[in-house]
Design brief:
The structure is a single chain. By secondary structure, the protein is α/β, with parallel strands linked by helices. It has one domain: Rossmann fold, CATH 3.40.50. Helices cover 41% and strands 8% of the residues. It contains nine helices and six strands; from the N terminus they run βαααβααβααβαββα. Strands 1-2-3-4 form a four-stranded parallel sheet, with helices on both faces. A two-stranded antiparallel sheet has the order 5-6. Helix 5 packs parallel to helix 7 and helix 8 crosses helix 9. It starts with 6 loop residues before the first strand and ends with a helix.
């Protein structure tokens, strides 16, 4: 049995610090049974990939790359390990959600998308310069389907207008990846299609629910806030919970207002499995 290469996860929206809500109850309620830093009730995509947590942490992608570079300089990882490793860069949707919900200026989105993708492209070049030869960039998921957005439809449907944001983002990403590969003369940069895998998984759940109305609505979050200004895991000054948790978290597609639940991530992983096996060169 072939050994898997080293995996490194670099994320624009890291969210992996001890003061994060992901280290508070009820996160981790399904797995491992306590809050452990995962934004969900249990396993997330990297768990299904068999990825261990590296020490490459930071508030933004640039700082994480700084940490990664330092580890290489300290010989924590050898040149051959870095060359054979797989770097997964997760772009995340948080920046766009914040822009949409707070600024509400959709006319400025095109410029904002380009600025984020341009910054990401610079960072991808830097990762490659450190010796990485296999860099996978996740495409942006359909933000119009996230509960924080679909709540406007009472979780009945995705808001397709706002899915133009990830479509535009992903179009530029794909073009930039093609250009970077031409520059390097080889297939260094690849993409992981979270957009279509999310949509397919959600549509499958919706179709099943049409046939059986007792099934869980895939667009509705399991952990929901009771009041505006609060979120899953938050309490008031008296320690009173300002959120509710559904009866069966293990059946939900979404855990909170933006993150899939363990069940959701598993469904997405199964959609991605064929392309992942092809990219990584092994079966899961």
């Amino acid at each position: 049995m072939a050994l898997l290469p080293l995996f490194f996860i670099l994320s624009i929206s890291a969210g992996n610090f001890l003061n994060s809500v992901s280290y508070k109850s009820p996160y981790g309620i399904t797995f491992p049974g306590y809050p452990a830093g995962r934004f969900g009730n249990g396993r997330i995509l990297t768990d299904y990939l068999g990825v261990f947590q590296t020490r490459v942490n930071g508030p933004n992608l640039t700082v994480q790359i700084d940490s990664f570079e330092q580890l290489i300089k300290q010989n924590v990882y050898s040149k051959s390990e870095v060359e054979s490793s797989i770097i997964i860069v997760n772009t995340g949707a948080n920046d766009y959600i914040t822009f949409i919900l707070k600024d509400r200026n959709l006319f400025g989105l095109a410029k904002y998308i380009k600025s984020l993708v341009d910054e990401l492209t610079v960072n991808l070049k830097r990762i490659h310069s450190l010796g990485a030869e296999k860099i996978i960039v996740s495409l942006l998921q359909p933000v119009g389907c996230l509960p924080t957005i679909s709540v406007a439809t009472l979780y009945n449907e995705c808001i397709d207008l706002l899915n133009n944001v990830p479509r535009d983002h992903n179009k530029i990403i794909l073009q930039n990846m093609e250009d970077l590969n031409k520059e390097s003369g080889k297939q260094v940069f690849r993409t992981l299609d979270l957009y279509n895998s999310f949509l397919s998984a959600i549509e499958d759940k919706q179709k099943s629910r049409q046939e059986n109305s007792t099934l869980v609505n895939p667009l509705k979050p399991c952990c929901a806030s009771l009041k505006a200004g609060y979120q899953c895991g938050k309490v008031d000054k008296n320690g009173k919970k300002k959120y509710t948790v559904c009866e069966k978290p293990e059946l939900s597609f979404f855990w909170d207002s933006v993150h899939p639940a363990q069940n959701g991530w598993y469904s997405i992983f199964k959609e991605l499995e064929p392309s992942l096996s092809q990219i990584i060169g092994t079966n899961f």
